[in-house]
Amino acid sequence: MAMIHHIHDKFFRRSLKEKRIAVDFLHAHLPPELYQRLDTETLTLTDKSLVLPQLREIHCDIVYKCQIDQQDGYVFFLIEHQSSADELMAFRKLQYTVGLMDEHIRAGHAQLPLILPICLYHGTQSPYPYSTDIYNEFSNPILARELVFKPFHLIDLTTLSEETIEKHGLAALMEILFKHYRAKDFAHKIKQIAHSGLLAHIIREIGQPYFKEALTYMYHSSGDERSPSVSSVTEMLIEALPNEREVIMTFAEQLKQAGQQEGRQESKIEIAKKMLAVGAELAFIKEVTELSAEEITALIQKH
Predict the structure, then answer these.
(1) Rounded-to-integer distance, Cα 277 and Cα 188, Å
(2) What is the phi/psi pair of residue 221, to 5°?
(3) Long-range contacts made by residues 161-168, C-beta under 8 angstroms, separation at least 24?
(4) Beta strand pairing status for 59-68 and 71-80?
(5) At 282, is the secondary structure helix, strand, or coil?
(6) pLDDT digits (tens, 9 = 90+) for 185-219
(7) Strand bridging mode 38-45 / 71-80
(8) Which residues contact 89 (CB under 8 A, 6 or more apart)?
(9) Do 37 and 68 contact (CB within 8 A), yes or no?
(10) Is the pTM of this model over 0.85?
């Protein structure tokens, strides 16, 4: 079977690599109004191959660059020659299309290209038994048309008032923190949140683990030069949430210890870098810094 596929692939590629054959193929099979929008003079064969690795035995592709309505685009030919038709072919086409778009952007282009996918089928089932519309590959095509491949839903916190956000129930804490974390008075905002009862409500409804995650975010987001120290934030939280004093104090201490440990690790790494710079042996660096061989090797590879 692989040999037969190879024969199909070879002849498919050999045929469509001839630009005149590709142009006649497009002229014969595209609707006239679509064909007229292609600038076939700009049709240029590329060296791209986009078929997914797991499907290379049953598919083969050819990609041409082409101006479509004077915009950058590609004509993407795919041959399908498996013995039974691919029920998810429309989805495969979408995967290949997105892959081609990704390559185009990675090449330095600022906008997505137009892509015209074309599939040549010569399997054993006739006619081709599946839909070419990807929506028909969903269990509920009608619902899929309403939800999928539409402009995404954007929640822009920068435009929402705090009064509006406060009506968002248990999601309000996350949204308020995200909205204000860049503010110079972020510490004051934390104090307001704590005294508003929102944190207490979160603790009652969601529990301590999520409260600790919120604490982590508040501490780390308030930890730069324009914000108060961890101890200041701790004092504000304890004042507003006296019943959670032990949890807050314990968490703040753990955070402090983690910061000290991180500082020690960074110091060891800096020492190791200096020793590497003067040609010290790996074993000696390991003994002095107490870094692992893997950590030192990673430093060597980076430099």
Answers:
(1) 46
(2) -75, -15
(3) 166/198
(4) antiparallel
(5) helix
(6) 787 788 888 888 888 898 899 988 888 888 888 87
(7) unpaired
(8) 80, 119, 130, 132
(9) yes
(10) no
